[in-house]
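Q: Could you fold this chain for me?
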Amino acid sequence: MFAGTGSDVGKSVIATAFCRIFKQDGYSPSPFKAQNMALNSYATPEGLEIGRAQAVQAEAAGVPCHTDMNPLLLKPSSDCISQVVLNGKPIGNRDAYDYFNREGREGLRGEVCAAYDRLAVCYNPIVMEGAGSISEINLRDCDLVNLPMAMHANADVILVADIDRGGVFASVYGSIMLLSPEERKLVKGILINKFRGDIRLFEPGIKMLENLCGIPVVGVVPYYKDIYIEEEDSVALSGKSIQAERGKVNVAVVLLRHLSNFTDFDVLERDPRVHLFYTNNTDELAKADIILLPGSKSTLSDLYELRRNGVAQAILCAHCEGTAVMGICGGYQLMGQEICDPDHVEGEIERLPGLGLLPVTTYMTGKKVSRQVKFCFVTGTVDTSCTGYEIHMGRTSPVEGVSASPLNILEDGSEDGYFVDHTCLGTYIHGILDNPSFIDFLLEPFMDKLVEAPAFDYREFKEEQYNKLADHVRNHVNMELIYKILTDHD
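A: Sure. Below is the predicted structure, expressed as structure tokens.
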């Protein structure tokens, strides 16, 4: 288990690295995180929902993702309310206080332990990931994901600390000292992450940590800038809000308050033909060639905010000036004539007029659609086979008197989305941009402004990044010691 001294210390990326390292070394690894909190999710081959981070780790491990890899997913819809997804299916919304204190907690513990047990029969090793800090002593009794889970699995725990944020000695020592003696026995190593500078200056610190804690430092992993792994959290997105560039297609993703599944746009960030930025600045939106409306966990709330802050009007003005607008999932719903929620699935708002770019209406429903799909898009040939996945609540259909004009035809013959023309389109399919043929289709109207650039293979790129990450971590971690820890059990 890779546990942390706190949130955002790099546990997910380190776990991803070890999934690929163990695969390279001839093992059959699988990721596992008992409970994840994230708005980035993914549909398994069975059409069930898990955290996107575990899907990425499964991809690095070279195995199909499964709900057992993340049996419990919390999807925040506000500061205090989350949708609870158990074994891939939503079981309702929970207030944070009630979730951590309500009866039935042991039932959830039984579910996550059973999921681990099923994985352990099929894979070896299991690369487990903790959540937040391992030393949240106020939540110890209800913790499902950190050391209680490690105890169930008899896992060797590696404590990951972020030296870049400062205070690494206190965070490591304090985390360990706050554990019970029984818990402390499970911590077999310390991994220092995100190191900058000359490692020789930190070598005395390594010895000090080992002497203080009585636990070996298994590695010091340097900060990197040239390896690209999908991020779990959207915290860094606003930092990508920068000016348009000449010689590229400028693509703006609208920075919604409840933005979800932002990994839909990672491929554009890597495509040499594209300059991608995230913004809710009306002046920046006016400079975009393409505006993308992303998914949202609270579509009506985000629509209300877009109207309040002037972004809705800015999108409409940009479209009138020739900017293409495309919506994905919640963004597709936003582009319609109206969104109705008579049953209060999302909240108190029962109806809002949409942006009016597409002649469709959305009704929110309690049933969640979650599935992987194969499809052909509107100008594709029969031979053009694309893949993606759906995770959404709500039913969208053309307004009365308007004919269907689907963007995509699914493998089962059903229709998806709406296509007006190259400058106005929407879809429920996440991952649609991971298909090179669809990217070419989206960029086609703007090809004349491009400085010549090669086409981009995102799948090949991701494989290269997993290997680069594995090499980077392997080169700065004592793998001989890691394998000794894993095999040296009484």
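A (continued): The longest strand covers residues 360-377.
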